[in-house]
UniProtKB/TrEMBL annotation:
Limits of the tRNA(Ile)-lysidine/2-thiocytidine synthase N-terminal domain: 62-204
Protein name, as recorded: Cytoplasmic tRNA 2-thiolation protein 1
Pathway: tRNA modification; 5-methoxycarbonylmethyl-2-thiouridine-tRNA biosynthesis
Gene: NCS6
Annotated ATP binding sites: 65-67, 71, 97, 175, 180
Keywords: ATP-binding, Cytoplasm, Nucleotide-binding, RNA-binding, Transferase, tRNA processing, tRNA-binding
Taxonomic classification: Eukaryota, Viridiplantae, Streptophyta, Embryophyta, Tracheophyta
Broad class of the protein's primary localization: cytoplasm
Length: 346
């Protein structure tokens, strides 16, 4: 038999529409599907996650944490599209943090400004300079490249909360994807950080705090989050520890694509013994932000910067001079360990 039906039957077709050629293989299901069907199933999967987990209620004001990177750009697009298509009745906003990193954040903020116009979502930018009096460029000039991500991560977390309360939103949606969450599960196990392990897989966190956060991309593979976006790496690159965990997860994914979802499932299924002491949440005596210590992490780090003692509260207390010991005791803070890029810190 030449050409015609015989030829067509040998050509692999999209496993959904059975008409077009497949353009990609889905890591979750290994299905080969065409681009058109991919967009439909991708958006409907996010819709299902939103509905099944009751992420939003009609009438709510929602801020989308927008960094200008691929995850948050796709999140802004999908959220505005689903809000319109399925009548969620949400008031959506974009919320960005300007850390003051020349050549990185100033460029990516341009992308966020484009998103503001493209999707018609009002944008609010909060900056480290306005909130804390320091840019990351100035902090790095003072402390070097060793603990910069600890400062940045702590400041970003609080900056997002402060921006969200300025916008008077009910929730903050972030673009953390399945790969990010699997990585965080692994890191929290490696660090023995039980308090974080128990909450890092939750799709909604901080419900007892001022602004709950949710992750509509919790089950979405990074590979599938693709759109016409601008992306670059921070010039003060994140520390190597998360980088190793990320590589390890990518290796596992190559051998067995389901590994990412399985790690999340393992994190979800961990049971924390009732005898495990969890930190009690209170408020910072200085700025009123949630804190399990006398001062919140941002106030401790700022105090160090403003007093020219940038290592205050970072690293181990053993071997530090008696003056800093006294400072640490007075502030009543446990020392912060340097972590990876705070944009991934839940
Ligand atoms: Fe901040 Fe991330 Fe850059 Fe570190 S890598 S300085 S946490 S943006």
């Amino acid at each position: 038999m030449k050409g015609g039906d015989g030829e067509r039957s040998r050509v692999r077709l999209c496993s959904i529409c059975k008409q077009r050629r497949p353009a990609l293989k889905r890591p979750k299901t290994l299905e080969q599907i065409c681009r058109e069907c991919f967009y439909v199933v991708f958006e409907e999967e996010i819709h299902r996650v939103i509905v099944d987990n009751n992420l939003f209620k009609p009438g709510e004001r929602i801020a989308i944490g927008a960094s200008g990177g691929k995850d948050s750009t796709v999140l802004a697009y999908v959220m505005s599209e689903l809000n319109r298509r399925h009548n969620y009745g949400l008031d959506l906003f974009l919320l960005s943090v300007d850390e003051g990193i020349t050549g990185y954040r100033d460029d990516s903020l341009e992308t966020v400004k484009r998103n503001e116009l493209q999707y018609g979502l009002p944008l609010k930018v909060v900056s480290y300079k306005d909130l804390y009096g320091w840019t990351m460029d100035e902090i790095v000039k003072m402390i070097g490249l060793k603990n910069n991500c600890t400062f940045c991560g702590v400041f970003r977390r609080q900056a997002l909360d402060r921006g969200a309360s300025l916008l008077k939103v009910d929730k903050l949606a972030t673009g953390h994807n399945a790969d990010d969450i699997a990585e965080t599960v692994l890191l929290n196990i490696l660090r023995g950080d039980i308090a974080r392990l128990s909450r890092c897989t939750s799709i909604i966190t901080g419900e007892d705090g001022p602004i709950p956060r949710c992750k509509p991309f919790k089950y979405t593979y990074e590979k599938e989050i693709k759109l016409d976006y601008f992306s670059t790496e921070c010039i003060y690159s994140p520390n190597a520890y998360r980088g190793f965990a990320r590589e390890f997860i990518k290796d596992l994914e190559r051998i067995r694509p389901r590994a990412i979802l399985d790690i999340i499932k393992s994190g979800e299924d961990f049971r924390i013994a009732t005898s495990t002491k969890m930190p009690e949440q209170g408020t910072c005596q200085r700025c009123g932000y949630i804190s399990s210590q006398k001062w919140c992490k941002a106030c401790v780090l700022l105090e160090g910067l403003n007093r020219g003692l940038p290592k205050l509260g970072i690293g181990r207390t053993r071997g530090i001079n008696s003056e800093r010991q006294k400072d640490v005791q007075q502030i009543g803070v446990k020392n912060l360990q340097s972590k990876a890029c705070g944009s991934l810190d839940f």
